[in-house]
User: Fold this.
Amino acid sequence: MNTTHPVLHVNHVGFRPDDPLKRALVPVASDRIGWLGGETFHGVEVSSLIRHPFGSPEWMAAHHPIRGTRERTPLGEYLVCDLSALSTRGGYQIHHEGSRSVPFMIYRDVWKRCFRLLLEWYRIAACGEAVPGWHEACHLDDGRIADIGKTQDFVGGWHDAGDLRKWTSTMAFVTHSLADFVREYPDPSAVGADPDLVRHQLERAADYLIKTLDPDTGLPWHSIASDVRVPNESGVWTDNIPNSGDEREVKRDTSPATADHCVRAFAGLADWFESRDPERRRAFLSAARRILDSWKNHLQRENQPEDMLDALLALARTDPSPEWRILAAEGLRRLLDRQVHGTCFGQKQFTGFFVRNGMPDENENFQGRGGRNLFRYARRVRQLSRALLLWPAHPESARWKDGLTLLLEGCLEPMTRMSPFRALPACLCLQSDPVPGKRPLSGALCFRYFGIHAEGNNCELAQTAEAFGLAARALADPRWAALGQKQIEWIFGFNPFDCCMMTGLGYSTAAVFSPFVGQIPGAIVGGILGTPHEDQPLLCMNRQLSPMMMEYWSAPTAAVLAALAVLENQPFS
Ligand SMILES: [Zn+2]
Assistant:
């Protein structure tokens, strides 16, 4: 046994007893033949083992033999240990021929231990106030509007990542994730989180985000203390003195994604302040409405209102005005008009995804962060589920339900089966698409497991987990929540590197680190990317390919908070 790098993969936290997809994996060579032609694992209940003498009947009963099966996937060949039958509370380890997995728990509440840690990230990443032991009050001189040289108050928010920048899209993402968490858990102490911390962070979000809005259009400025002139210029501590010359700069730019996240954030804040401060609630609702109006006029794109679905659905959750429902239904109609039914691209194995102009949609021409349309389709799961949950009696709800079921059963679930880890691959494309490292799938369809550019997959997988949890709720079908949990397990060690990508739980050999404050409990890194030409998984400090795989980032941390909040409230079987 190699004690520094176990070859037996299992997530490092554990399993809920009701999880029907408990699995551990051993990568094997394709010519391997097991002992007497079979493969036997043992699920060892360590908590019982230590109380009974070696070899006693009780000791023997703590060893649960599990017959392994073989799974051949384009990602490699694996022995699968399906330990779903184990449901007795306890500490476990999987043994196979001298290899042992990391120890893990089977316990209903085992994943609740993540919440307090995830909220530690919010506390430590806070900008504009002192966090003893981590950093002094910082950036009290944010910032100077670059093109007019005017000093204006942009103090607050959170540091975006392992660096100190403050992109508004991330600020808003962190805010609506926190608001979604408190919707699921109005009393955060139910999951061991500090209610005062949650309240303080929501108030900080409310104070900060309102400062980012353009006085003329109401649209949020995006690049605040972030890459106004050159990349990473704002990754610095400053002297906290306004007009001293080292203020970080602000650009008066915006984008549809920033507008989307801000509407969702203001909707979440309006909900939170409803019983606490009706006047602030009105201000946030009015800010959200103004962003939507300006978005329609200033950020016009071909596929509105499809692009606005998340924003519309978020606002509709707190504001019963019918206009959000009408626009959202229009967006869903346009989306479902583009859904594939039955045979396509010379095959009938995969269906239910979306096309535009004869191509699988939402790959953004594979430029920049494109080539991730399966993750985008998972967001469509979130939108269809939210619409069904909001308006179950809507005249078009049967179509939404059929479309959602077809997307899940025809495309996303079969694509998770391409991975022995059951994590959703990134990209569906055509043989004719200019995608390096694409793998054959079926007919003219190809796929990639991993993105190539920019940050890793953790944020998308966490959003997929949340979407599957919402689908389980909307369709009253627990299997989708169980599949959602697999997406979270990938982040917590059930991945080809046996590496937990959150600091503070599990085991990690990743260089998870912020060069400004050090290791941060609860923080999650960008995650795994693929090598460009082979689509092999990669998790390393490779500045040439991407500096962000092992960098802490607010977005996956916030996305896991929102996803676990939904999943913890859903049955798995
Ligand atoms: Zn700061």
Remarks:
- The first helix runs from residue 46 to 49.
